[in-house]
Amino acid sequence: MPLLYTQNLRREFGGVVAVSDVSIEIFKNTITGIIGPNGAGKTTLFNTITGLDYPTGGFVFFKGEDIIPLPAYQITRKGIARTFQNIRLFKEMTVFENVMIGRHFRGNHPKFTSNKYLNFIMGRIFVAREERDIYFNSLKWLEFFDLLNVRDEYAKNLPYGKQRELEIARALATEPDMLFLDEPAAGMNPQETEELMGTIKKIRDLGITVVLIEHDMKLVMNICDKIIVLNYGRKIAEETPDDVQNNPEVIEAYLGKSDE
Amino acid sequence: MLNFILLIIIYIGIYAIAGIGLNLIVGYTGLLSLCQAAFIAIGAYTTAIFMTALHFGFFEAMLLSGLVAAIFGILIGIPTLRLKGDYLAIATLGFGEIVKNIIVNWDSVTKGPMGINGIPGPQAFGITFSAIDKVPWAVLIWAILAFCYYFVRRIVRSRIGRALEAIREDEIAASAMGINTAKYKIGAFTTGAFMAGIAGSLFAAYNQSVAPLTFDFMMSIMILCMAVLGGLGNNFATVVGVIIIVIASEIPRLVGISHIIPPQINQVIFGLILVLMMIYRPQGIIGRVKLNYAKIIKEEILHLEK
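ok -> C-alpha cells follow
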C-alpha cells in the first residue's frame, strides 16, 4: 500500500481549475519528482496535500487516513513536512531557533516528580528537560547540514544556498515520514545542485520519503525513482524517468505540437 | 519630594505590568493591539465594583480583575485569527472605544462619567495600604511586577515563546512547522489582557477611585510607545521604556517648573522623542537580543542535576 495517495484531488479557484482530478501514489522510501510547465498546478497540489490550501474535491490518504479535514499543523504532526518555493524562514530569528521551532511539538513531555511541587508550578523541570531535548536534537540537524558555525546568525543574513538548506533542516527537525520540497534547487549554481542531490539521497537513506517539485531536469532525472508530470492541472504521466523522457504527451507539453 | 518619587515608582510599576503584557502581544506575537487601555479599564472597574458594591477583599478582586480581563482577551483574540496587521489594529481600536463607551453609559453599574470613588485600601500582612503611606504600595506593586516579569521570561524562553516569535515572523511557515497558531495567538492575547487587568486593579485600588476618561485611546498609545521606545520583543527594554516615559512626563513637576510651562509641553517633548527614535533607532533603545542557547541549556542542565 502506498504511504500517501490522492484520489481525484481537485482545486478550483473560481472558474480556473488549478488541480484537476489528480490521483497519485507515493510509496515509502522513494524519491518522487513532480514536473510540469509553469502554472501547471504543482505548488497548488503541494498546498492541498499539506493542508495550507483546501481541495474542492477528492481525497488525500496518508498512512491509510484521510487527512483532508485536518488543519496544516495537524498534518505536520502526522509526519508530513515541507519547504516553500519562496523561502519562508523566520528571518529575525537565529539559525538555531529556526531549527528549534521544527522540534516544537516533538518535545518529550515528562511527568513531574511528586516532591517538586514548586518546580511544577513554574514548570521548571518540565521545561528544562524539554529544552534539553530540543537543543540536542536541533544540534544534530545543524550538524547534518553543516550549519553549526553560523548557528547564532539571523536567518536573513545567510547566503541563499544556506537558507535553502536551513529550510530543509527545519522541516527535518519535525521528524517527518514524508518531506515535500518545493523547488529546492531554484537559484542554485551547478555545484550547489550537485551537493543538494547528495543531500536528498542522504535524506532518503534516513527512511524519509521525498517528494519534490523541480525544474532542474538533471536533478530530477538523476535521483527520482518516479516522475509525475502535470499540465494544466491534469496528470499526464506517472512513470520512471526513462519512460517520461520518451513520452510523446510530455514532450508536447514542454515543447508544443509539431506542425506536420 | 520623597513622596513624589514614590509616586513615580508606583506608576512605573503599574505601567510596566501592562507594558510587559502588551509586549507579549505586540513584540513577541506580532499582533498590533491598540486596546491595552480597555483591558486596564476592565480590570480597574472590576476591582472598583467588587470592592465597593460587593465588599470583596482586594486580592480576590485583583485576581478576579485579571480573569475578567482575560475573558475579554479571549473574545478579542478570536477575530485575530482572521485579521492581520492594520486591520487587526483597527479592530482592537474599535474594541477599546466600545469598552470606554459602555463604561461611560452604563450608569447603574459604573456610575457613568462620575466614576467610582471610595475604594477601600487593602489590608494584608498586618498593614493597611493607604494613599498616604506609599511605601507598602510601591513594594506590593513592584513585587507583582517582578512576578509578571519572571512569568513572561519563562514563557519566552521556552518553546512557547519561540512559537509566538515564529507566528510573528511567518504565520504560514509556523503552521507548517506543526504550531497551532490559533491557540498561541489567543493565548498571547489572553495573557497580555490578564496582566493589563492586574495593572488596572492596582491602579484603581491605589487611586481609590476610577473614572472612565482615564482609559482612553491615548493611554493605549502611550503603553505601545513605551514598548516600542525600549525595544519590542524584549521585556527588560519595555521596563526601560516605561521608566523613561513616566519620568519624562513628570520632569516639569519633578524640577519644580510646572507653574511656568504649560502641561501640554509634555506631549510635545514626548512626540519629539518618538520622532527622533524612529529616525535614528527604529529597533528601540535596547532592541531585541539574541538568546545564547548554549549558555541557557547549560543552566537548565545544572538545574536538572540539582
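The mean pLDDT of chain B is 86.
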